[in-house]
Amino acid sequence: MQKFTAIMLDGMSYAAWLFLVAVGLTLIYGVMRILNIAHGAFYAIGAYVCASALGVYYSLGLPGVFAFALMGVVALVAGLIVGLIVERGVLRNLYGRDEVLMVLVTYALFLILEDAVKLIWGVKSYFVYQPYAHFGFIEIGGLPYQVYDLLIVALAVVMGIALWFWLERSRMGRMTTAVVADREISAAMGINVKRVFATTFAIGTIFAVVGGVVTAPKIAVTPGIGVEVIILAFAVVVIGGLGSIPGAAIGAVFAGYARALSVHLAPEFELFAIYAVMAVVLAIRPHGLFARASGRKI
Amino acid sequence: MMKTDFRREPLHIAILAGLLILGFFLPDWMRFLLQTALAGGLVALGVALQMRAGLVNFGQGLYYVLGGYAVGMLAAKAGITDVFLLLIAAIAIATVAGVVLGLLLSRYREIFYAMLSLAVSMILYGLLVKAAWLGSTDGFNIPAVTYLGWTPDRTVRPDVYYITTAVLTVLACLATARYLTSGAGMLCEAVAENEIRLEYLGASSRKVAFIAIVVAAALSGLGGGLFAMSTGHVDPLMTNWTTSGGFVFVALLAGRGSTIAPVIGFFLLELVRTYALDFAPNAWQMILGSVMLAVILLLPNGLWSLTEWRRKA
Amino acid sequence: MHKTIIPLCLAGTLTATGAWAQDDTIQIGVPVFLSGPAAGAFGQPERNAAELLFDSINEGSVPAPYDSEGVNGRTIEATFSDEASDAVVEYRNLVDRNGAEVVIGYTSSANCKSVAPLAEELQTLTVFVDCGTPQIFEEVVTDPTYVFRTGLTATTDAVGAARYLVDTGVDLSRVAGINQNYAWGQDNWRDFTGSLEALETGSEIVSEQFPQVYVGQYGAEASALLTSSPTLIFSSFWGGDLEAFVLQAAPRGLFARSQVILTTGEALFPTIPDELPEGTIISARGPFSVFAPENELAEWFRTAYAERFGQEPTYPAWKMAQAVLGVKAAYEKAGEGADSTAAAEAMENLEFEAPSGTVRMSLGNGHQAAQSISYGTYVLEDGEPGVENVITYSAECINPPADQTAAEWIAAGFPGAECD
Question: Which of C83, C11, C8, C6 is closest to C51 using CA atoms?
């Protein structure tokens, strides 16, 4: 019974984290057709910025509660700055190029950003564990569980709904949806596609940075933390269907529970759990669970 | 889309052969770099072949590692050290894997082919990491190979290995050029352009894709085998996605204009990597990334477009 | 950055074949992790220690017996290289292109395994600093001439851990393990469980977690360990993974409910000393850091390192210092004008002094160091990290005899082990 509780909680908590790191990737792909490898670097930047900002904050002896507000501010500012620099500086010059080529562009960006992070922060570990310990733990069915992890679940739900709301209800969001449906017609109807792209990329980047910011208190912020994230995020969005936001949520749940199940029941398969799910889903539904139907060119 | 004409291919390959003969006289370290780059270049060539059919394989490392482990396991565990047997085994195993996966994957296109091939290669990575008897992530070492009973001793071994690699690379390029001028090879671009029209014309796009996958697998298996022979060590990183990503990068940036483009491109990439590492051990990835970006921005059709431009002028 | 370390940037492009090394300098190649997840935990302290030692040796400011300037009077010039790139290719570049006469470095076992035969082929003195795998001299190069390892194998850690747990009477009825899913973690867990069997503890293995290396999310693993209610948890985690595991598992009471043993726990001292629960059993993978003996070299190393880099050296730094001093000792034993080959000859079965005490190259045909290992429980004294209840196991107690591989030795129940 305790094992069952543990699997439910662990699966949920891991799924929430996966959703946070993957949803920005799927948004950017859906709108811009860019499979962004630099997403992992954005995640790492988020973690580093959070660690530095909170490090300064705590060293001033300020009250712990407002640290969470600072984390939010840090994520927004860092995401916006990094996202716009990359979009304006590099990607803007390359729109309309081959999809695979864009993957390589973002791969090159990833390499550059990885070393940039290393040059700014060095290779030593950074720690900000105070937020993780702030709320302590509660016992659920005899199993101690960090409240912070449960808050990440809440955050993932809130951010998912907010994103959905933005896309469906706001003016900019509806323009974005129009661009997804047909880039050329949208442009003809007077939508500023480049602006839509810039906004989308910034939002996607903010999501990646948020992922890094909320993870920073749980880990040692060290070089290389972005690498594993990319591949996990890819798997999640491919399972759900590239470019679909509900797909990213479902993909995260699938992958999250696959890992939780394997850790508790068959730890030796943990390494393949996520790829196995991905392979099985693609074998049955080649375009992912929530893929849009695409037209055939004749 | 770039028009490719493979009638000039024998000339290109002759140039490659000439370069490789000159390469024999390079300093030891650079010749070794060239030797391992040739092995990797064959894999990049395999990726480029599939790319002509619109298939981007982000898991080509799978065949590379199979070739490498085939050589390694036969030589280190089964005691078969004859280089010809070993390399034939490497090609054979990769080809069999290519047939099996080709049957499964030839109906996928675009990013889905890329992701599924990536998933399969990473599952193999996971299996190899789990395999303690194969040294897990440490991999294992491979004894020196023999030539029909002759074991080259330490002083001539680097020369012999280089010659073996160079000769086989040239032969592989010739075979690939032969395939590209055959029906199945010529139809690849049609698959990438418009499958439905291709089907109306009575050809099976799936079959064309399947053949491209199998040919690429065989090339990559040979590449993996040669790499294993050269470095005397194999480990599961050969099938990690980062390795496969490098092959895609070279295939794309070298251009698809010739079979020798990915082979030479891979050497250039390795050269940039090692000099970046020597020049700035703390920031070599940044240099590598910047060079990649510069190539993408300045040479949209790949390095090979430099030769096209010269011809036009 | 000190001026005496001159990086050989783009030194020779096409002409270099390694012949330009002049008599008054000695070129040393130092491959360590400069990028990736191992850069912080291993690369940084190793590089720091190497730079400190090279500079101090060149100045002649290391205490006796290393107080002469340079190596046989030759000034050390170092080339650092990133281990995260292709090891075989970059090793050749170091030796052939940059003219390295000696190579000191390598942390990853995969790299050691692939480089070892090459070092023999290129006839270059190569000293491995770390590398856990016992296979180097058991399988890879069984008759070594140029390859040495001045650090202990992972087997030593695992055997020492099992002995310490038995000797201190820790409840071993229900044992769980969490180790990284790669060769290091797998080997450690195999050797540890094997040692428990050899010591007849009758332990039941209740959970075996093998999370993927570098993922950093251990919520599910911590739950699985908690629900299996072990009396002891063994982990060979290192670096960021270790730190993340402690940060995520300690607040949930994992360390309070079970005894935890961390084979690389000492590396947490400069990073998260306040988060590591007291009472955790830790080691430094040898007689390093808090486990080091009191001698002039140790005192000098600790002070000089802390002065220059602003923090105490962790065990990888001690291991690097040991390797560098071993090379100096070998060259000086071989005498004036010694080259790589002569130094390699002299290093065989060498006994030399290091900050960790006397190192005997007595295993692996005289190419593998034999040293003691210590375990202790973690304690904070006035906010300073330290250890108590330390037990040290001599080299003869925790290393297999020369004619047996580590695996055979453990399986046979440690025949010939001499423990006090």
Answer: C6
